[in-house]
Amino acid sequence: MEGQMREVGIVGYGAYLPSRRIKTSLIAAAWQKEGKQIEKSLGVREKSVAGMDEDSVTMAVEASLIALEKAGIDKTKIGAIFMGSESHPYAVNPSTTKVGGILGIGHDYFTADLEFACKAGTTAMQIIAAFLLSGQIDYGLGIGADTAQGRPGDVLEYATAAGAAAFILGKKKEEFLVKINDFCSFNSDTPDFWRREGAKYPSHGGRFTGEKAYFRHTLAAAEKLLKKTKTKAPDYDYVVFHMPNAKFPCKAGEILGFTPNQVGPGLIVEEIGNTYAASSLLGLCAILDRAKANQKILLVSYGSGAGSDAFSLTTTTKLARKQKLGKNFKTFLRKKRYIDYVEYLKLTEAINI
Fold first, then answer.
1. Mean pLDDT, the chain, as a whole number?
2. Catalytic residue at 242?
3. Is residue 209 over pLDDT 80?
4. Nearest Cα to 240, choosing from 273, 290, 283?
């Protein structure tokens, strides 16, 4: 018997990417580094960059509007909004109430901003699923959105990117585009990445962020869910992991027994970089845009500090029709304008000109 989360599903989803991009080679050249070598090492060719008029809230709204269009529900029926981000515009002043206000869902909803590094978006989905199962709400909106920061000259600068993904969850089976079979988490106090109050840029533990952090938690969460649902890697059509670079998710997939064909469709980091709380969720959006009915997906996020959330998902026959509504992930992927390094520094507020 597979899991116990049969009464919760995704009824709408949406993605958003800024149009601006900067190539990895340009960042490398600014620091007199070998661009091709860095591209090969990270597996990131270019990344998305938020404009002057874009932040995690505006991107969350854009993604949510698409999710609402696909869901086709009365937006005032949304009873909860939870948003995960490392880059909420205000330290004190919630992002979710701004999203709710702009969307016009009314005032009768549960809400909170979430922070758990890059897994806060999937945590938002877990919280909403719990609200649905408790009978408190009919629909909930879970969001992962970030304008990720990286100190100029630091290795993070090559991949930290901007984007958002939004998912509307519900409990009516006839509306499910994707059924949530089950989920779980694996967490520990592992300080691989941090940013103190008032610090503009995060710090990290270098090589420590790999085996002891990303792989330990990602693999443990995935293995826990596979055991819980009595499934194995070959049972899934797709798998998507958090993507700090291209090498980590590919290695995680290989260790767990997944093939490149299962990993590849959700491996979007090469073209957009690491969108932090939106990373694994944007990979899921890319998969849902192409998935067929009755296909199984394993979703595994990762957040420094550290923890991973894992989901077992199954698509339904409703998905194909909804894929045609609203802008899809590829629309945003293809719409891009390249910028130079000086403009990049201005947009990320690294310099004031």
1. 94
2. yes
3. no
4. 283
